[in-house]
Specification:
heterodimer, A: about 180 residues, mainly alpha, 8 helices, B: about 270 residues, alpha+beta, 8-stranded antiparallel sheet, 7 helices, about 45% helix, extended
């Protein structure tokens, strides 16, 4: 029997968002339990500082509590928004600069590939994503991870790795094409 | 960067923060008035956000949630705090009067101490319940982590077969099974219509020899999506087909209802 059919059914994200708008603290608690480890892990991977990562985690969920009414669950994924926020805020803090992209919940829509909004489908797709990234050539994965987790530009990655700028651009572009083909076939 | 002049790869570079700042600003401005480009930006953000899965999954400290919830609850407290402050100011009296009516002060203090003791006892009980709940939650997380490992093993194994399920005659819907005979693991994802409350869908593994084996009972969500993840199956069962039938709610030991999806293992 699928795990989804055992015990109390999980409320969908959009239902919990509606309850947040009605100032239901239990809904925030449920969303926190669902996504805090993901959000925290990204901030921790970027900052390598538990205190700073915890601060970002708490601030993001507080922003969600305050601005839930601006989130349109029919247009975007909450999990995606939380991950993008975590990464962007952590990179801003790491590089001591303001956010590069808008944090507005209405403007910053994040669409995950089809199927990821279902609880178990989400885990299946995350597993597919892990495999897709693991299958990249080491040098491609290195370039992509330096960009994502350290916020480095093409030039900075070239400098860090000692490779020509053109080589880095090719590695990044190729890695992105492979990920796109795998995740949005 | 005028309308629709973005290269496809620019959306991913934008989401990764690798576009030149000027180009990124132009892309954002353009997306305000272009639905297609806004959708592509949203998809790119989602795709790039999946890079997060390479970060080791770490559970935050328990006190972060407590601080967050206190911060949220404190929104409702200011009014109560004002009342308490007002009550305190009314109780202020000259020193001599306080001394003369000392027992008036001591008696409430004694009552207060008793109340505090009861409150502390209740708080202690509550914390013990929370601790038990957290221990239970931790066990659940360990189980989920184990399932995640099984899932990755299933999806990455070269001997995992992918079996598309097609609708049976007169029905609609789609599905797909990924099955690994050696590991005895399976994932089903599909899209099917809603059923009456007294009915469930049931997934069956049809072995090369013998009767069909139940591989999970499921009910699609409001959008018709459904998933069966890692049902209890033995290892080494050679499957010749997979099928989905409509059965009484909760499932049955052997298929009785009509087939809605079917797919042969090739």
């Amino acid at each position: 029997v699928s795990r989804a059919n055992q015990g109390r059914p999980l409320a969908a994200d959009h239902e919990l968002i509606k309850r947040l708008v009605e100032r239901d603290g239990d809904a925030l608690s449920e969303l926190y339990d669902r996504y805090s480890a993901l959000v925290y892990s990204v901030a921790l991977r970027v900052l390598r500082d538990t205190g700073a990562a915890e601060e970002i985690l708490q601030d993001i969920f507080y922003s969600l509590w305050e601005k839930a009414a601006r989130f349109d669950g029919t247009r975007g994924s909450l999990a995606g928004w939380l991950l993008v926020m975590s990464r962007n805020r952590a990179i801003s803090r790491l590089r001591r600069r303001g956010p590069e992209q808008s944090e507005d919940m209405e403007k910053m829509t994040v669409a995950f590939p089809a199927g990821i909004e279902q609880d178990l489908g989400q885990r299946a797709l995350l597993a597919t994503a892990r495999k897709a990234i693991a299958d990249l050539a080491d040098v491609q994965r290195e370039a992509i991870e330096l960009a994502y987790f350290e916020g480095l530009t093409h030039s900075e990655i070239a400098q860090r790795t000692g490779q020509p700028l053109g080589t880095i651009k090719t590695r990044v572009r190729t890695a992105l094409e492979i990920l796109k083909k795998t995740l949005n076939p | 960067m005028n309308a629709h002049q973005q290269r496809e790869e620019d959306f991913d570079l934008y989401a990764l923060g690798m576009l030149e700042p000027g180009d990124a600003a132009e892309m954002e401005a353009h997306a305000q008035s272009c639905v297609d480009c806004a959708e592509k930006m949203a998809e790119a953000r989602g795709r790039i956000a999946l890079l997060s899965v390479t970060a080791p999954l770490v559970t935050p400290g328990e006190d972060v949630k407590r601080r967050l919830m206190e911060r949220v609850r404190s929104e409702a407290r200011p009014a109560a705090a004002v009342v308490v402050a007002g009550a305190g100011s009314k109780r202020e009296r000259p020193e001599r009067e306080k001394s003369r009516w000392g027992w008036w002060v001591l008696a409430p203090l004694a009552v207060g101490l008793a109340a505090a003791t009861v409150l502390l006892w209740m708080e202690n009980s509550r914390m013990q319940r929370e601790l038990a709940a957290l221990q239970q939650e931790n066990s659940a997380r360990v189980a989920i982590a184990h399932e995640d490992r099984q899932l990755v093993a299933l999806l990455t194994a070269p001997d995992t077969v992918r079996v598309p399920l097609a609708p049976a005659e007169g029905t609609t819907g789609t599905g797909e099974v990924r099955y690994n005979q050696r590991q005895g693991t399976l994932v089903y994802t599909g899209q099917l219509g809603a059923l009456p409350p007294d009915k469930s869908y049931q997934l069956w593994l049809v072995p090369a020899e013998g009767s069909p084996i139940s591989a999970g009972v499921f009910t699609p969500d409001a959008s018709g999506n459904s998933t069966v993840l890692l049902p209890q199956l033995g290892t080494g069962i050679s499957a010749k087909a997979f099928a989905v039938t409509v059965e009484p709610a909760g499932g049955v030991p052997a298929p009785t209802g009509p087939k809605v999806l079917i797919g042969a293992v090739t």
